[in-house]
């Protein structure tokens, strides 16, 4: 997160998964195209990851991988959510990643970040395994999903149509066995989990405690229609 301590002096913080802020005083992001390197991004969120790369000599090199500039424009207040959803997002020239849509509050209690996405965009990473002992008339197996609880334990099944089985999964199912898949929740089908993508960057499924929190976000999720945006505006301006 990039903000500004004083005019012309940016302040850069790395925010971990527990929402702890770590200031990095020697890190700046100059505005693209400025040959003087005198202007810097402010009030900006960057999707990034701090990693240790292992070099050929075995030494670890600390690197910051930057994926997306999430926000580098004027931020809206909480009652501006309708404008963000109905005007700003539809005008984007790229597909918005909902997991990078944040609401920032800077007030008396410091900086707080609320991460929001539509309920049907919440996803879980699980281990996939095929159960051919229980299959349908087309010999389509059960797509079993496993969560992490010190070892991988059964969680639920993944929904796959007969057509998807024939066209994508059937002929190469052995290479899919045991891989980590990202699935999204769809209450209109049974089982309610749909394949989104493979997560070969993950060594194991999400921990069961993480899954419980994600499930709570799914079942208690707030849609755009439920946001009561105008009520927020009226309350804010009292």
TrEMBL record:
One MF term in the entry's GO annotations: mRNA guanylyltransferase activity
Domain of life: Eukaryota
Record EC number: 2.7.7.50
Catalyzed reaction equations: a 5'-end diphospho-ribonucleoside in mRNA + GTP + H(+) = a 5'-end (5'-triphosphoguanosine)-ribonucleoside in mRNA + diphosphate
Record InterPro entries: mRNA_cap_enzyme_adenylation, mRNA_cap_enzyme_C, mRNA_Capping_Enz/RNA_Phosphat, NA-bd_OB-fold
Subcellular location field: Nucleus
Domain mRNA capping enzyme C-terminal: 121-226
Keywords for this protein: GTP-binding, mRNA capping, mRNA processing, Nucleotide-binding, Nucleotidyltransferase, Nucleus, Transferase
GO cellular component, one term: nucleus
Keyword match Hydrolase: no
Enzyme class at the top of the EC tree: transferase
Statement: the UniProt record of this protein carries the keyword Nucleotidyltransferase: yes
GO biological process: 7-methylguanosine mRNA capping
UniProt domain mRNA capping enzyme adenylation: residue ranges: 10-72
Name this protein carries in UniProt: mRNA guanylyltransferase
